[in-house]
Amino acid sequence: MKNKSVRNLTISALLIGLGILIPMVMPKIVIGPASFTLASHVPVFIAMFFSPLVALAVVIGTTFGFFISTTPIIALRAFSHLIFALIGANYLQRHPELVLKNGKFTLANGRFQVFNVVIGIIHAAAEMIVVSAFYFMGNMPDTFYSQGYLYTVFILMGIGGLVHSLVDFNIAYFVAGALYKQFNLPIFEKAVKHEKELHKVTA
Questions:
Q1: Are 165 and 124 contacting, i.e. CB atoms less than 8 angstroms apart?
Q2: Average pLDDT over residues 121-146
Q3: Membrane-crossing residues (predicted)?
Q4: Which of 136, 155, 137 is CA-nearest to residue 147?
Q5: Which residues pair with 35 in a beta bridge?
Q6: How big is the CA angle at 53 (ends 51 and 58), to the nearest 5 degrees?
Q7: Quick one: which of 187, 191, 121 has its CA closest to 159?
Q8: CB 58 within 8 A of CB 47
């Protein structure tokens, strides 16, 4: 039990470090006045494949890092990830089988992609709420107001945020799928175990 706690703490620390580092080094897609950093959500998504506790730690850790190094709106957007991370991680605990298709990893996994879309909608909606609060308080750059709420918040942050989430979760899913046979990923282990039990029942 102690070894598991130390392992989870170590993994959380590594993912927090990556979560703070990635926005500094990864390429950005700029669609004025918004920008989207490739893979910026990947550490949180990977944390969901471990446990709700690891996901919680990574969100809080990255939020703290952003409060120190960036603007309040970016930090609060990071904190809003707590919603989708806990919902997603808890769902994966109850339904680990959705990360595999017929016992194998593949990006062409319909069940996982539906899950990805649902998480993406929750993710984008939470960030839109944060941005909307700053928008209506008058704390956004002038470029946001010149383009109007519908474009800057709903289309860019909402639709754009959903697409960003879908891409990042697939990157995290690909990384996890490449690692799970060599590195113990709890959700994938549970999925393999579930598949074996299913074969025993149907055999």
A1: yes
A2: 89
A3: 43-67, 112-137, 149-176
A4: 155
A5: 30
A6: 100
A7: 121
A8: yes
- The tokens of 60 are what? 């809080």
How many angstroms separate the first and last alpha carbons of the chain? 35
- Report how far residue 154's alpha carbon sits from residue 161's, in angstroms, rounded to the nearest whole number: 9
Q: Tell me which DSSP letter residue 50 carries.
A: T
Residues 99 and 96: their CA atoms lie apart, in Å, by 6
* Residue recorded with tokens 């957007």: 77
Write out pLDDT tens, residues 178-197. 998 888 899 999 999 988 88
Alpha carbon of residue 170 to chain centroid: 10
Contact assessment for residue 85 and residue 55, using Cβ atoms and an 8 Å cutoff: yes
State the Cα–Cα distance between residues 91 and 85, nearest whole angstrom. 10
Task: Report the C-alpha gap between 137 and 135 in whole angstroms.
Answer: 5
How does pLDDT run across 1-53, given as a tens digit for each residue?
667 788 889 999 999 999 999 988 988 888 867 888 999 999 999 999 999 99
Sign of CA dihedral 99, 101, 105, 108: negative
Query: Do 8 and 50 contact (CB within 8 A), yes or no?
Result: yes
Q: Is the model's pLDDT at 200 over the cut of 80?
A: no
